[in-house]
Amino acid sequence: MTRYSKRDFPVSEIRRFLEPGPVVLVSSRWKDETNIMTMGWHMVMESDPSLVGCYIWTEDYSRQMIRKSRECVINIPTIEIATKVVRIGNTSGRDIDKFARFKLTPVDAEKVKAHAAISPKFPRTIHYRGDGLFMIAGPTTRRYRRLFKPKNL
Ligand SMILES: Cc1cc2nc3c(=O)[nH]c(=O)nc-3n(C[C@H](O)[C@H](O)[C@H](O)COP(=O)(O)O)c2cc1C
Fold first, then answer.
1. pLDDT tier, 93 (very low <50, low <70, confident <90, very high otherwise)
2. Mutate which of 24, 34, 37 to test ligand 1's pocket (most atoms within 8 Å of Cβ)?
3. Is residue 60 lining ligand 1, measured as CB closer than 6 Å?
4. 38 lines ligand 1 (CB under 6 A)
5. CA–CA separation, 114 vs 109, rounded Å?
6. DSSP-assigned beta bridge partners for residue 127
7. Does the pLDDT of residue 42 top 80, yes or no?
8. What is the mean pLDDT of residues 65-86?
9. Separation of CA 44 and ligand 1 centre (Å)
10. How far away, in angstroms, is 38 Cα from ligand 1 center?
11. 3-state secondary structure of 44
12. Percent of the chain with pLDDT over 70
């Protein structure tokens, strides 16, 4: 087994190893206004009923829109639109209409609903490592599946 030597590391940088993936786009709507933001800081907290925790900075325009409407949609982009993902995170709905600027089509949401593309089964999602680096979802293995307790599957 490989032995790793460890060194002290800044606590504020630990996020680079812990940041969950994939990066998502959180869209929102309040009255006639739509908005969308890039988000890396989210985590699954319950499966049924589905509960996802997330952190939205106080200065983000999305925060006030979601607070008012009390709803949002979590969209999971893949590597093909990584450029848009970064640009959506570089701009604010306070200044521009991001759906128009990035040629996105807003669609009415249905409450407590999920939908996904049928293929590929394991999409090439992008996972933020901090410092402008993305990890792209790669190989999937079944090798350890037989070790799992059923309730942990
Ligand atoms: C890769 C990436 C990850 C980000 N993760 C978060 C996040 O988890 N929470 C957050 O509040 N902002 C995050 N941001 C920044 C927001 O997307 C950014 O502040 C955006 O301008 C907010 O848009 P808004 O003002 O229209 O809401 C991230 C940006 C990038 C590029």
1. very high
2. 37
3. yes
4. yes
5. 10
6. 135
7. yes
8. 96
9. 18
10. 5
11. strand
12. 99
